[in-house]
Amino acid sequence: MQIGLHYSRHTKIKGLDYLTSFEFLIITSLLLICSGDIEPNPGPTVVQDNASTHSTDNTQECIVMNNFSVVHYNIQSILNKVDVLGAELKNFDIICLTETWLNPNISDDCLTIDGFKLYRRDRRSDSHGGICVYAKNNVYSRRRSDLELPDIECVWLELNSHHRKFLIGTFYRPPNSSAEILSLIEDSIGLAFDTNVNNIFITGDFNLDILKNSSRQKVRDICQHFSLEQLITEPTHYTESSSSIIDLVFTSNKTNILSSGVGDPFLEQNIRYHCPVFFVLNFNKNTSPIFHRHIWLFDRGDYDSFSQSIQETNWSMLKNDDINIYAKNVTEKISTLATQHIPNKTIKVRKSDPPWLTNEIKIMIRKRKRLYNKYKITKNIIDFENYKHLRNKVITEVRKSKQLQTDKLAEKLKNNDIGQRDWWRVLKGFIKPEQASTPPPLVKDDIVHSDETEKANILNDFFAEQTVLNEINASLPADSPQPPY
User: What is the pTM assigned to this prediction?
Assistant: First the structure.
């Protein structure tokens, strides 16, 4: 509005000249937009999410989407599986993975899941074992290395959500481990309890089959020692001829648990495989705010008719002695004409999935889950083969869709007609596929703030404090002599 006031005060143009000047401003604005130097619809780089793509008939999926949830999966090598894991587990807040089979030569850049922060611990002695834990960016998380003993494989995170502090420990105990390893795991759990954090959750692959008496007694001893409860009651690991429950979930307070269970083994492991285990807490997860935004489809505008309407407008009817009302009338008239000749709409903006995770893939994932649930009921080998066929198809489609998205970005970079600003934006799609549109949780006075309004007020107060000048010892400069006229 200040630009309009400045223009009105310093430009003495009437009638047609006034019209031509506004037409010139509009044409100039359109040229800037077409040049790629102006963002036509500024705002977070997210797209409208079609709510109909979410499952409404799967109660468990809805619970995971709406409440704070944690999943563990023994994946037997994470390389070449990151895209599939991201597509399948994106609705969980914490993703715990064991047997990642990494080494220090593998960069974190190869392990990125959009919207998550990575914590990892590789096995030092060889390229097997290892743990990766992903925490969503909108959840306050920090690693508790003081709880991780050097001779066992574990990762501890301290989390804070909705002003609740809790610890999550992820363990991998190799098969045929000595009794000393189990003792060290208990020592690590003991250190967690010494922190006086009331809510403690433990998950991982312990290779202790609680379907066998000897292993069940060891797990029972751990539970009795620390007043824990173990939640998983159905098989999590399958071989050619057996099944076992070795992927476990422990909690120090079962009243915090809304749901827990075993998911379908969506990775391509045909003979020996693990199933993911999960648990859901009884409070809502942190979510990005949903808001409405008005956007303009400038590339579809009819600018010839727009220009004609501008010329036919009686601008003198908009005049007013009050410059503010005059500027408002002109602005509203231009906006009305633009609405008539440039397609526009109001969309609901929410946190979106990656563009390569299409609705077709989401539908196949839900269908695959239904096939696995059917197999668990019937135990029919034909049902399992149908499940495996669709599972393998989902994996292929995820990888194909991700590669297609990468190829599209590459083609855009090769286009000689692309503007400088668009070129850098496309390049960012390679380097950093997701740009956070909101700041992460903020800590002030040892209190974690995740609410968007709270974070905005904290940042506003901080920057306002930086503008306060200390004038206690300040003095005015000496008057300079008046210049001769």
Answer: 0.73
